[in-house]
Amino acid sequence: MGEPQTSPNPKRWYAMATVSLAVSIIIMDATVVNVILPVLIQDLSLNVSEAEWANSIYALVFAALLITVGRMGDLFGRRRFLLIGITIFVLASLIAASAPSGAVLLLGRLLQGVGGAMILPSTLSTVNAMFTGRERGIAFAIWGSTIGGMAAVGPLVGGWLATYVSWHWAFLINLPIGILIVVGTILWVPETRDPHAERGVDVAGIALSVVGLSALVFGLIEGQRYGWWNVDTAPSIGGWTWPYALSPVPFAFAIGILSMVAFVVVELSRARAGRPVLLDLGLLRIRSLRYGSIAALIVSLGEFGMLFALPLYVQSVLGFTALNTGLLILALAIGTFLISGGTAQLAGRMGGRSIVRIGLLLEVTAVAGLALSISATANAWVLAAWLFLYGVGVGLATAQLTNVIMVDVPVAQSGQASGLQSTVRQLGAALGVAVLGTVLVTTLANAASSNLEGIAGLSPQAQEQTVSVVKGSAGAAIPGLSSMPGLSQEVQTAAEDAMVTAARVTTFGAAFALLVGLVATVGLPATPPARREDDDADDVAPEPQPVGD
Known about the structure:
Elements: H1 12-43, H2 48-76, H3 78-97, H4 102-130, H5 133-164, H6 169-172, H7 174-188, H8 203-226, E1 236-237, E2 240-241, H9 248-272, H10 287-316, H11 322-340, H12 343-350, H13 352-373, H14 380-406, H15 414-452, H16 460-472, H17 489-520, H18 529-534
């Protein structure tokens, strides 16, 4: 506050459009796989674990690296990391687009996660640095609404391309968009750094955070495949097979928990010694950041878990094409974009915390209504109406949650704070697919087994084979069951009913997660309406000026 106030960057809104496009591309690819997953399962012969990893490995790498690259961006330049991240992301998209197998697809998705992890904190820190006062609240609302809206646009784009062109183009489309982002970044986005950041690399913190987060999500995703305690299916890599009766999943959980505990101990120790840290845990003393991050994690868990289950249900039971699935989910995006333009004004009148709570309440209501509407003969317009209401909630809650989380964070610490809040969002997305994906597949297998027992003339071997096929494809194989040797339309109907049960249970699980996220907002500090309206230059840190490369 002692520094002179500088004039606003005249290109800041062009830069805002560029960073919004950068956010769009990485969020779109977080959900684009959802709608083309049945096609990928068939075309690349993915098993259920590979299908889950096609979604989760992207979010997992995102979550594991965000804190690290957010810190590095503070030190070496956020625009530089944005450009590097876009380059990696586009190259990874080309690998995914040309994938001949599940392994290559997962490699491309992993590298996309690396690029995306470099992009997201760079964009949020840049927004925090470019804008002040009321404009900062508007910019945060745009940034948050882009996340909510593009999560729904991804399935539409993927569905249209998979239907009329090829699933390969769901990834190839990133090439021209990436070029536009690079050009816009070079022309309009200023280079900013944290001038107060201590030089030095926290190698131990980086290693422990990456190992801990990776191990935890691995255990959640692979538990239903390898067994939660004893081995159901022994992992095999390059001819080497897991030799123990105890599943690797408990080991993964133990490694993850111990690594995260060690991470906290190491970071606190380094901070006391005055050494550079990967994450300043003192940031968690900021109440808005602490409780807002908890809410963001749980909300992301519910949102992405629901978006994983819904496309599988509508395609395997209702017979939707990939394009029709994308059009259905477009209702979510329409709700988000229609309301997002007015969220800043509403927050100015009611306060950011109130808007977040209203949005989350709408999300809980909509997802619970969606769960109640799921059936073998569900009306698409009814499903779309619930998704529209859900999108309105996302437009309110997601946009303002970002603003509420970051509102009390000093600009000098925006890189670490943006990395932390982005990490919990992506960790929530990975956990959503892992936890609710496990609920979906487990419920599907149990319900299918129960439904098939009542079919006369179906041998135990045929029943076991059918359950295995349905579970292994996460329901994607259901439409073709009646054409398989020895199986009838009755078998397919029983499997469809099992998918209805699984989708309903999973969607109720997502609604419960969102409800927990709503409860978590109790800890958010009140944001007086006047605060958003009356911000001036004296209330905020001055805008950092661009720095040379």
